[in-house]
Design a protein that fits this description.
Layout lengths: L21 E2 L10 H14 L9 H17 L7 E4 L2 H11 L11 E5 L9 H9 L2 E5 L8 H11 L4 E5 L13 H11 L2 E5 L11 H4 L3 E5 L11 E5 L49 H15 L1 H12 L2 H6 L4 E2 L13 E4 L6 H10 L2 E2 L1 E3 L2 E4 L7 H15 L2
Parallel strand pairs: 1-11, 3-4, 3-5, 5-6, 6-7
Antiparallel strand pairs: 2-8, 7-8, 9-10, 10-13, 12-13
Helix pairs in contact: 1-8, 2-8
Protein name: Aminotransferase
GO molecular function, one term: transaminase activity
Keywords: Aminotransferase, Pyridoxal phosphate, Transferase
């Protein structure tokens, strides 16, 4: 339980955000902490003189990062983690291997949640055309509370004709949680694959891979993992062990660290998820930054990040609801999260106008449909929340 944890205090001193900036927008891109910034500077310094670089140095950074990420998601086998450049890359791996899924046949369905991020949607059009599949999209309910009903509709549509389910831990626009354990169990019962885009949750919300038992989990590194852009991580379960990669990187083959034998072309891949690594996955500059970010997150702990953001915003939600805004209630794993919250604005307001007014006062959030996406983290303070409320009171009452 969250109450049993030692509470986090503000971590603002670990960042270099200006004092007059109220950055409540981690879901767009996290600021780099001082430790991540220092890791990047050190990596650049090392790269100015590559003398003494050993073959194993091309692999060692990713090995450490796989281990740290595995700890974060409770994955007992780091060899199931691949280095990817983006969520779209990871989802493309799933689409590429969907024809190999046991029992796949024309007429089956892929289940999506509505208003999902494009990277979780575009991958399936070609797969549907080639395999004769259809897409079923479960849209967000009109009524409040939305979470319980949305979850029930997702569970109800997963049936014997379901080939694949794509669902996030929290919706990227609204912060509504999906009961991944229940969805995972239902998918297994009907023989469907479960692929999860963890980008907007993993690092800030507890994630237990062993309880959920997904087939794939893909996570960009520049949001709640708090690392650099264009570097992400993906878990691929046993269904992908003999699958087809997107590219035939030389590093993904057995004995590829033996540079003096690279001309002895190797038909065998390294085990498990290694074949799905993006080419040049060493990322000599970015990998040390992601390593530093993951070490920091493991120290903070997602449970404590949730507790911190819950307490930080506790008084804000009633104050904003008094202005005619609406917020999804907290309802365990079928309600809203605390690190990413959709604030539905009154019908007479224009979300883009509100976002621009906030930006003018140096308050950063994101407008998504008729909602503001408010995403605090441990670098935020009550002063940031006060600035948000102050500007919204002024703008919404116009």
């Amino acid at each position: 339980m969250l109450t049993a944890l030692t509470p986090l205090l503000t971590q603002k001193d670990k960042f270099t955000l200006p004092e007059d900036i109220h950055y409540l927008n981690c879901a767009t891109r996290s600021p780099l902490s001082r430790s991540v910034e220092q890791a990047g500077h050190a990596a650049i310094q090392r790269d100015t003189n590559p003398f003494g670089l050993r073959p194993d140095d091309f692999f060692s950074g990713a090995i450490r990062v796989r281990t740290l990420f595995s700890q974060l998601i409770n994955n007992p086998d780091p060899e199931r983690i691949a280095v990817v450049p983006s969520v779209s890359y990871g989802m493309a791996v799933v689409a590429r291997n969907l024809p190999n899924k046991p029992g796949i046949e024309a007429g089956q369905r892929i289940v999506l949640v509505g208003s999902e991020f494009p990277s979780d949607v575009y991958a399936w059009d070609r797969a549907c055309d080639e395999l004769g599949l259809a897409i079923t999209t479960i849209n967000v309910p009109d009524e409040f509370p939305k979470g319980p009903l949305w979850n029930e509709r997702v569970l109800d549509v997963i049936g014997p004709d379901t080939a694949l389910v794509i669902v996030p831990p929290v919706h990227w626009m609204y912060g509504i949680r999906f009961d991944l354990e229940a969805i995972g169990q239902r998918a297994r019962e009907v023989g469907a694959w479960l692929a999860i885009d963890g980008t907007q949750a993993i690092g800030a919300l507890p994630f237990d891979l062993e309880k959920i038992q997904p087939d794939a989990v893909i996570c960009a590194g520049y949001k709640w993992l708090m690392g650099p852009y264009s570097l992400g991580l993906a878990y691929f379960g046993s269904a992908f062990d003999e699958g087809t990669p997107l590219e035939e990187g030389w590093m993904n083959r057995l004995d590829s660290n033996q540079f003096h034998r690279l001309m002895d072309y190797q038909p065998i891949y390294r085990p498990k998820a290694y074949r799905y690594n993006v080419g040049e996955h060493s990322h000599f500059l970015q990998m040390p930054m992601l390593e530093a970010a993951l070490e920091q997150l493991l120290d903070w702990q997602p449970e404590r990040i949730q507790a911190y953001t819950e307490e930080l915003m506790r008084d804000a939600w009633p104050a904003l609801e008094s202005l005619g805004c609406r917020v999804e209630p907290v309802n365990e794993n079928r309600g809203r999260s605390h690190h990413l919250v959709g604030l539905w604005l009154p019908d007479h307001t224009n979300p883009m106008t509100v976002q621009q007014a906030l930006q003018a006062e140096k308050v950063s959030v994101s407008a998504r449909a008729q909602a503001l996406r408010i995403t605090p983290h441990v670098y935020n303070t009550p002063e940031d929340v006060d600035a948000l409320i102050r500007v919204l009171r002024k703008v919404i009452n116009l």
